[in-house]
């Protein structure tokens, strides 16, 4: 008559609101739509999450990787999580803690179904049921990245030492190159990492704005070599994705900054979208618009050691509406042709056919396949979300044309940390 009732234990997936930079990567990645957000927080629905872990590697801050063993009926609801400013303290499960209140009817001895379930859940890695398009590990030779050195609670103050427009003044694309200096304080970064900017002021609910994430446009040794500074590529947002008028809080703040203004910075973030660090590694870089920021950082890293004999080959596919809307067009075109193979895809250049980066990958199939056949080649894709599928299709087409099996190569590229996506 006193047999224990079965107790349903859940390994609840939570996102740390103090570290999360609200970049939407987890919501984009979740294959079962378990992640959602309001104006305050990104949260995981305990009734939908299957613990597949697909969202964990892409998270640039690690805020996604929080788990609590909970009695299922007491799991934190989505509504509760929306209200959090920080994660609640861990609660011991009834069976694990002699001081906790036992669940009515539950056997709380060490061998109880409750403690066994808890142990199994704590020990077992969650089942992966989803394969993302890109790698969840960095290339084997990538340098060690530092992340989360500065947080929402303890940001770093940087000084603006440069802010100028890098697109034609007569075009709609108002893209700025912004240089931030950290003075004496350490801010170690790698190409491919990002930082968060805390815009001043409060949101519609009267809460401080959350950080906005921007990729570095400068290499690890600074925008100016040997200086403790870095650069960002920021497009002034004046409309939303649907074309309706919208005022980008942080992009307008950044684009309007003057020299000597100060900015609150958090980060750095990102541990996978990193460049290889061994000699003669080749890079295929595919980007649109401001997605060129990490490509500029990586290219500049190579340019600074152009005479070292260490560089592999660089191949760039860069999409923009017109030449005048392509950030850094002038400096880019001055780079030596034997240093970087530049392919510009212009979609709205008057008098020219509409071209996307994936069209040019097909045009250059032989050269792309040649690079893909070399295990020293890494591929980076950054920019508009919409290009992800097109780029994967183009890579599949060119590989198959050369008689290779894309599904096998794709898996190898992912496993070896040689194919990376950062799209929004
Ligand atoms: P954009 O000017 O809107 O577009 C750039 C080019 O991409 C245009 O030629 C556009 O052609 C083309 N394009 C549109 N859909 C495409 C598709 N499905 N496949 C291939 N090309 C396509 O770009 P943007 O406003 O600069 O946006 C760049 C993106 O990068 C943003 O989503 C941004 O969030 C992201 N990003 C920024 C940073 C940063 O640090 N600032 C870092 C990482 C990512 P159409 O003429 O057809 O429009």
From TrEMBL:
InterPro entries found in the cross-reference section: 4Fe4S_Fe-S-bd, 4Fe4S_Fe_S_CS, Benzoyl_CoA_Oase_BoxA, FAD-bd_FR_type, Flavoprot_Pyr_Nucl_cyt_Rdtase, FNR, FNR_nucleotide-bd, OxRdtase_FAD/NAD-bd
Self-association state and partner proteins as the record states: Homodimer.
Keyword Lipid metabolism annotated: no
Residue stretches making up the 4Fe-4S ferredoxin-type domain: 11-40, 42-69
Catalytic activity: benzoyl-CoA + NADPH + O2 + H(+) = 2,3-epoxy-2,3-dihydrobenzoyl-CoA + NADP(+) + H2O
Keywords for the protein's UniProt record, in alphabetical order: FAD, Flavoprotein, Iron, Iron-sulfur, Metal-binding, NADP, Oxidoreductase
Residues that, per the record, bind NADP(+): 215, 235, 290, 347-348, 354, 383-384, 422
A molecular function GO annotation: oxidoreductase activity
Gene3D superfamilies listed in its UniProt record: 3.30.70.20, Nucleotide-binding domain of ferredoxin-NADP reductase (FNR) module, Translation factors
Annotated ranges, domain FAD-binding FR-type: 153-275
Domain of life: Bacteria
Taxonomic classification: Bacteria, Pseudomonadati, Pseudomonadota, Betaproteobacteria, Burkholderiales
Record region (Disordered): 89-111
Name assigned to this protein: Benzoyl-CoA oxygenase component A
EC id: 1.14.13.208
Cofactor: FAD
One Pfam family from the record: Fer4_7
